[in-house]
Write a structure and sequence with these properties.
457 residues; alpha/beta; Aspartate Aminotransferase, domain 1; five-stranded mixed β-sheet; three-stranded antiparallel β-sheet; 40% helix; binds ligand P71
């Protein structure tokens, strides 16, 4: 008999979680104004809100926490952190930040000014937020294939080179850099190929532009390259990562994803000049250059996490669990973004709930029903997240209405995945009874999804 696949780790510490009744969940969610961000986490059984900062650190990472050097300046922890980043990414200059969006804030403070245009594959919402906050514009140049959830394509995160070149040709003087998000979260945790990164680099060179990579899930991206890209099967993950980053000038990183820590981030770059100008904002917003909003122990845990996350066995276990859930949903006939991405399952809410109008927040409606059905918390990646147009203040209706089920790293077992799949299957079986969604009662002027208050229609 062929031996089945099994996790490349065992469990040394556990955290209890509690089941609840449907009646309890209905009341809790009503009290939370139907916003899943407002729920107490103890009201959630399986929490798939995000894979960000929710991972389980290894015994080695916890050991590193104990070795943290908490000196204000020049801590050994910073040097460990810097060495790990230099070794793994190949970038010389490193600035720690408290998380990914802080890295964006610091770097974009140097690079973006009012009226600028920043093209890339689907920008993540905090990235877009930091671009728009500076009265600049994010232009989505993702390949069209990404927006058809049924279409199988090995690299649905790829940049459409002709869309990119058109923007470069027409608005070249307003473009400070091109941004590639790896993996592309907004299109479903979909990878970008090495070939595509190289081609973007060549276009950037042709027009004299920088390339920045939003690298939150760079290791998962490298795993897909190893599996899917011609000529990469025999390369190690670490070799692939070095090649990926050889096509970038700078990276922003949310270490809460592929460094498997609960908090942290960084910027890494090649140019000394850019480092010097970023350092000014680093000190203003984040802290001194050798800690940037983090404790020494956090820097140590990130360094160790980066080494672990770029091991093939870890990545295989990680991505296979996401695939396990996705395959189950596909067996039930549930529409999800395919191929299955690296960190999450994205359920196609428009195809799941065809009776709910887009004005009534289709993906949010699905997420609310899943919580009530099974105590599982997903997140809306749809109209609420897409927010209003900053100029017209009209709702933006994205092509895809998705409910994301993000899988924390090394946290849940496949029994939990079975429960999630069963909850969703129950909803799928009675999908025709769900006809109405929600209306907004209160919302913030930017990044409204975190705090929005809703009522049932
Ligand atoms: C995710 C998150 C975290 C999040 C953000 C908004 C709502 C809910 C959860 C964060 C990312 C990301 C990419 C590609 C930058 C950030 C910001 N993602 N780039 O997917 O996915 O990093 O959270 O550390 O500030 O749940 P940060």
């Amino acid at each position: 008999m062929e031996l089945p696949f099994a996790e490349s780790y065992r469990i040394k510490m556990v955290e209890p979680i509690r089941r609840s009744t449907r009646a309890e969940r209905e009341q809790w969610l009503k009290d939370a104004n139907y916003n899943l961000f407002n729920l107490k986490s103890e009201y959630v059984f399986v929490d798939l809100l995000t894979d960000s900062g929710t991972g389980a650190m290894s015994d080695r990472q916890w050991s590193e926490m104990m070795l943290g050097d908490e000196s204000y300046a020049g801590a050994s922890s910073f040097h460990k952190f810097q060495n790990a980043i230099r070794e793994i990414t190949g970038f010389e200059y490193v600035l720690p930040t408290h998380q990914g969006r802080a890295a964006e804030n610091v770097l974009f403070s140097v690079l973006i000014k009012e009226g600028d245009i920043v093209p890339g594959n689907s920008h993540f919402d905090t990235t877009k937020g930091h671009i728009e906050y500076r009265k600049a514009k994010a232009v989505d140049c993702t390949i069209d294939e990404a927006f058809d959830t049924t279409l199988i394509h090995a690299f649905k995160g790829n940049v459409d080179l002709s869309k990119l070149e058109k923007v470069l040709r027409e608005s070249g003087n307003k473009i400070p850099f091109i941004i590639i998000t790896i993996t592309c979260n907004s299109s479903g945790g979909q990878p970008v190929s090495l070939e595509n990164m190289k081609a973007v680099r060549q276009l950037a060179n042709k027009y004299g532009k920088r390339v920045v990579m939003d690298s939150a899930r760079f290791a998962e991206n490298a795993y897909f390259i190893k599996l899917r890209e011609e000529g990469c099967q025999h390369k190690s993950i670490k070799e692939i990562v070095r090649e990926m980053f050889s096509y970038a000038d700078a990276i922003t990183m949310s270490a809460k994803k592929d460094a498997i820590v609960n908090i942290g981030g960084f910027i890494a770059m090649r140019e000394k000049e850019l480092f010097s100008s970023s350092s000014v904002f680093e000190i203003m917003y984040e802290g001194f250059l050798t800690y940037g909003g983090l404790a020494g122990r956090d820097l140590n845990a990130i360094a160790q996490g980066l080494y672990e996350a770029t091991e093939f066995d870890y990545l295989e276990t990680r991505v296979k669990q996401v695939e396990y859930l996705g395959d189950k949903l596909l067996d039930y006939g549930i529409p999800i973004q395919q191929p299955i991405g690296g960190h999450a399952i994205f359920v196609d809410a428009k195809r799941f709930l065809p009776h709910v109008k887009k004005e009534e927040f289709i993906a949010q409606t699905l997420a609310v029903h899943l919580y009530i059905e099974a105590g599982v918390r997903g997140v809306e990646i749809g109209t609420l997240l897409a927010d209003r147009d900053p100029v017209t203040r009209e709702n933006r209706y994205p092509e895809l209405e998705l409910m994301r089920l993000a899988i924390p790293r090394r946290v849940y077992t496949n029994n939990h995945m079975d429960l999630v799949a069963a909850g969703l299957k129950n909803l799928w079986d009675r999908r025709n009874t769900i006809k109405h969604g929600f209306r907004i009662v209160r919302e913030a002027p930017i990044m409204r999804h975190f705090t929005v208050e809703l009522e049932k229609i």
